Amino acid sequence: MTATQGFIPPFMFYISRHEWDISLLTLLYSEDIDVVKFVAGITKGAECKISFEYNNTNIKKWDGTEIEGFIEKLKEKSTYNIESFRATIKVYL
Asked: End-to-end alpha-carbon separation of the chain, Å?
């Protein structure tokens, strides 16, 4: 995703509670100007801390794939802020 003008948010958008985590991560990663403003509005300048819990049994399913490398990269830090999270993700896109 790149910084663009013209994000038109829907009037209402339903996200299942089972998908909130990934939805929030997607918003935090976005560089769209309007999404960045939205995130800044809901964080109100607070330093966001992003951390992950890993289920190592499930990770074994991805042995030898790019997903495994991505997860290993995420494991290098215990906590991210929005900027360091974006920088880490960009390596894999």
From this structure: 9
**HEC sequence for 24-67:** HHHHHHCCCHHHHHHHHHHHCCCCCCECCCCCHHHHHHHCCCHH
More confident position, 76 or 27: 76
pLDDT tens per residue across span 26-69? 888 888 888 888 888 888 878 889 999 998 888 888 899 998 88
Domain range for 50 is 18-90
Tally of structural domains, the chain:
1
Strand partners, 15: none
Q: How far apart are CA 25 and CA 49, in angstroms?
A: 11
